[in-house]
């Protein structure tokens, strides 16, 4: 019998490949991988080009922030659009924006074009990402919580792989052929993503709007009934304490990620490392995220999302405490790998928790709010880093970050206790 035709319990016992990869998951993984290569590679190439032109380090912060300016303003609307129209149409618009942005610096390599590239690619990939993330939770309607986490783990591996491949390839191409060739390589990756969007996601299922997420199911089970009673407000998503904890812990993890990303090029440039060395440091960090996400399906059968997030935040805090003491490249690489392992757990676990707790019919909006908050952090962290770097120094900033990120451990612990009490039989 074909594994797809087996009943859910038989598929779980068989360990069939199709259980791990429901229809359309593999194309979404590769779309995420190739689309994000244009962003991760373009971000490193652009930051090194800005520094190479003799511009100030604060301008690098501005450049990094531009990837997230428009996503902050549009993420909620994108999430609601996905809820209404489904993911396919939204993803086509997103990849079109990424393509335009990726080819701009190839056609005209200048600082203004780099800033335009950042806004096009940042906005386009955010559009694609919100649509794809929301869809992954609905690809297998009978999935258990551990299976859902495994699906998000597989999906996030594409992001992790691109975070390694983009900077690594960019660094090599910059040293060998120059900046324009590096931008062209990333633009070709965007073309691969566009081909996959055009040919591999036709007929992708539209997420159910009635009772698909969490405990916000409509009383009569009809699609959209809970949403139709009154016009929804974004603050409704924060009505539950567990949802507030999810967003708070997600903000902490996203902030630590963004600070690490914006800190590395500046630190590497100050230490006199070549583009290849800086790209390798980025790649080892990304290898850590990939490794963590590769183990997510295995972990999902043994521990819960909140357990993983609590442990990950402890590691993030410890890494930031030790980073100022890592003056040698091998030590920095080791800490980068450890940090990648910790922060790499955040996306699949947060998306799984969000999908489980979001009100019915508003899963796309919930993902959009997560993206809004994450991109808001991506705007603020580079700007604050650029402003505070000179007066306070990098060591003080990293230790301050360790203290702030450590504050996320308590809400993660409370989330775990709440989930355990909810699962405990009553009476």
Structure commentary:
The protein has 427 residues and is mainly alpha-helical. Helix 5 (87-107) packs antiparallel against helix 8 (179-200), helix 6 (111-136) packs antiparallel against helix 16 (363-392) and helix 7 packs antiparallel against helix 11 (275-294). The chain has helices spanning 8-14, 17-20, 25-52, 57-85, 87-107, 111-136, 145-177, 179-200, 225-228, 241-270, 275-294, 296-300, 305-322, 329-344, 346-357, 363-392, 394-406, 409-423. Helix content is 78%, strand content 0%.
Write a brief caption for the model.
This protein has 427 residues and is mainly alpha-helical.
Search tags:
disordered N terminus, mainly alpha, 78% helix, 427 residues
How far is the first residue's CA from the last residue's CA? 43 Å
H/E series: HHHHHHHHHHHHHHHHHH
Q: Give the low-confidence spans.
A: 1-19, 209-213, 215-228
- Number of DSSP E strands: 0
Task: Summarize the biggest pleated sheet.
Answer: none
**Number of DSSP helical runs:** 18
Mean pLDDT, to the nearest integer, reads 81
List the SSEs and their pairings:
Blueprint: H1 8-14, H2 17-20, H3 25-52, H4 57-85, H5 87-107, H6 111-136, H7 145-177, H8 179-200, H9 225-228, H10 241-270, H11 275-294, H12 296-300, H13 305-322, H14 329-344, H15 346-357, H16 363-392, H17 394-406, H18 409-423
Helix pairs in contact: 3-4, 3-6, 3-7, 3-8, 4-5, 4-6, 4-16, 5-6, 5-8, 6-16, 7-8, 7-11, 7-15, 10-11, 10-15, 10-16, 10-17, 10-18, 11-14, 13-14, 13-15, 13-17, 13-18, 16-17
């Amino acid at each position: 019998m074909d594994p797809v035709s087996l009943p859910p319990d038989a598929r779980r016992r068989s360990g069939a490949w199709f259980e791990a990869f429901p229809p359309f998951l593999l194309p979404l993984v590769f779309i995420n991988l190739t689309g994000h290569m244009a962003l991760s590679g373009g971000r490193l190439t652009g930051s090194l080009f800005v520094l190479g032109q003799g511009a100030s380090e604060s301008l690098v912060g501005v450049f990094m922030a531009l990837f997230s300016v428009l996503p902050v303003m549009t993420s909620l609307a994108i999430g609601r659009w996905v809820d209404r129209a489904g993911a396919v149409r939204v993803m086509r618009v997103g990849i079109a924006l990424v393509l335009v942005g990726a080819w701009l610096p190839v056609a005209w390599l200048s600082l203004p074009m780099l800033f335009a590239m950042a806004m096009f690619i940042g906005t386009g990939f955010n559009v694609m990402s919100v649509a794809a993330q929301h869809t992954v939770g609905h690809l297998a309607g009978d999935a258990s919580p551990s299976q859902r986490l495994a699906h998000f783990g597989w999906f996030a591996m594409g992001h992790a792989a691109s975070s390694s491949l983009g900077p690594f390839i960019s660094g090599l191409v910059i040293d060998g052929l120059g900046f324009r060739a590096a931008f062209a390589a990333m633009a070709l990756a965007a073309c691969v993503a566009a081909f996959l969007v055009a040919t591999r996601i036709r007929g992708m299922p539209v997420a159910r709007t009635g009772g698909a997420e969490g405990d916000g199911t409509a009383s009569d089970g009809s699609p959209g009934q809970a949403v139709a009673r009154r016009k929804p407000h974004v603050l409704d998503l924060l009505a539950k304490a567990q949802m507030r904890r999810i967003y708070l812990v997600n903000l902490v993890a996203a902030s630590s990620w963004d600070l690490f990303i914006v800190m590395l090029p500046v630190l590497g440039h100050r230490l006199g490392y070549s583009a290849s060395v800086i790209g390798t440091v980025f790649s080892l960090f990304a290898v850590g995220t990939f490794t963590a996400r590769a183990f997510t399906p295995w972990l999902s059968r043994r521990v819960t999302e909140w357990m993983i997030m609590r442990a990950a935040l402890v590691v993030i805090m410890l890494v930031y405490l030790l980073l100022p003491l890592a003056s040698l490249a091998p030590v920095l690489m080791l800490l980068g790998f450890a940090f990648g392992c910790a922060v790499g757990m955040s996306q699949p676990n947060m998306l799984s928790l969000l999908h489980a707790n979001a009100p019915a019919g508003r899963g796309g909006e919930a993902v959009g709010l997560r993206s809004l908050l994450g991109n808001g952090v991506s705007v603020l962290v580079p700007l604050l880093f650029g402003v505070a770097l000179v007066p306070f120094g990098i060591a003080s900033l990293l230790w301050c970050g360790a203290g702030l990120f450590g504050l996320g451990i308590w809400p993660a612990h409370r989330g775990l206790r709440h989930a355990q009490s909810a699962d405990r039989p009553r009476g």
